Amino acid sequence: MEFILAKPVDVPTYVEYGVADIGIVGKDVLMEEDKDVYELLDLGIARCRMSVIGLPDWTPGIRQRVATKYPNVASRYFREQGQQVEVVKLNGSIELAPLIGLADRIVDMVETGQTLRENGLVELTSIFEITSRLIANRVSYRMKNGEIQRLCDRLQKVIHAEASKS
To answer: What is the rounded (10 degree) CA torsion for 141, 144, 145, 147?
Structure first.
């Protein structure tokens, strides 16, 4: 086995194009990137959630702007809610957007909520839960099914054992 350490956002691309047979990536990245890979296993680690966040006194206005590192996730969510919003893509310090007037709300990951509290923000709505996932290249999964399935089975045993401890 060879390992490649990569930025999380790049993992699905490496797997989709067959540079890597399998990869581990967060559900947030899978939802945002929408790559053509198999999602094989929920590893149950790195738990957090994707949420809509804002100031405690936020009320809907005529023009709504949402800042996020996840523009596809945010656009899809608000469209499904029947809300028209302008999505502004940011790459870091998303929590500053409502504080400086760039956006009314943000869509971002929340683990403990500590960063939100430190910035005077609140979680308005949880969109979906996030954990790390094992993904596979579609061709590799067919061609190396035995090896990949054995790895999945071994990981599944560990996941069940850890769940039993809780």
So the answer is: -120
Q: What's the rounded Cα separation, in Å, for the pair 131 and 8? A: 13
Question: Looking at the whole model, is its pTM more than 0.85?
Answer: yes
132-136: strand order across its sheet: 22-26, 132-136, 38-42
Task: Give the separation between CA 11 and CA 135, rounded to whole angstroms.
Answer: 9
At 87, the amino acid letter reads: V
* 57 DSSP assignment: T
Q: Model confidence over 43-60: pLDDT tens digits?
A: 999 999 999 999 999 888
Strands 48-54 and 105-110: antiparallel
Q: Virtual CA dihedral for 125, 110, 108, 43, nearest 10 degrees?
A: -110
DSSP code, position 3: -
